[in-house]
Amino acid sequence: xxxxxxxxxxLTGLSALPILILWLGWGGPLMFALLIVIVCILALREYFLIxxxxxxxDIYPPLAILGYTTGLSIxxxxxxxxxxxxxxxxxxxxxxxxxxxxxxxxxxxxxVDAVAMQIQGMVYIPVLIVGLIRxxxxxxGVLWIFFLLSVVFAGDIGAYYAGSYLGHHKLCPSVSPNxxxxxxxxxxxxxxxxxxxxxAMFLPSLPWAACMVxxxxxxxxxxxxxxxxxxxxxxxxxxxxxxxxxxxxGMLDRIDALLFASPVALIFKEYILY
Length: 274
What we know:
Elements: H1 3-26, H2 29-51, H3 60-79, H4 83-104, H5 111-136, H6 141-166, E1 170-172, E2 176-180, H7 181-202, H8 208-236, H9 251-272
Antiparallel strand pairs: 1-2
């Protein structure tokens, strides 16, 4: 990363922080759900551009429109705290995709791959991201959202700097040549440090041992999410999912780790720590 890109990355992050604080601190659950809707739509758009890049353009619009509709429906179901409805929505999306596949397969066999990528996208983005809505709507939800964001972003920063200055051994070169084992360890250390500080200051009653495990699993899940998106981009031969956020790439580049980390935080908050 060049020095100019490095500056853009910090300026974008710092300028977005007050907006996020205001939105979470003064907005209610509905406002947070609307924020998730915006993020989900932007991330889905980038995902579809990646997923359908190798397929004919005429099959992109119906699958994408169905994907947007399904994604928004999943968020509405999560806001209503209806897990059963989410399952129904995913099933309907699958059936409609299957119908489209059967209609188009004779003239365009590549639709099989496109349908598979669309169905994967529904789990990858809407299903994973609604974990944030569930966390927000529980007791101390706002604090936990800040908690999760801080741990995930600290891991991202720690991995970047540790990898830049100490990195020598490649972590997964076939997917992301620049990521190193040293960077991964640095990210996990940052997860533990920031998570421990926030836990000590705002959640002192939580057990330390379980929290340390949670921080490590959140960090590990975040790194897997980062690598997973890198694999998607590499398969489409692109560097960034978009150019929405200067210095950060697209929305999907910014939330790739958070998508995988949020279910881990939800499981610990709902079923292990309390």
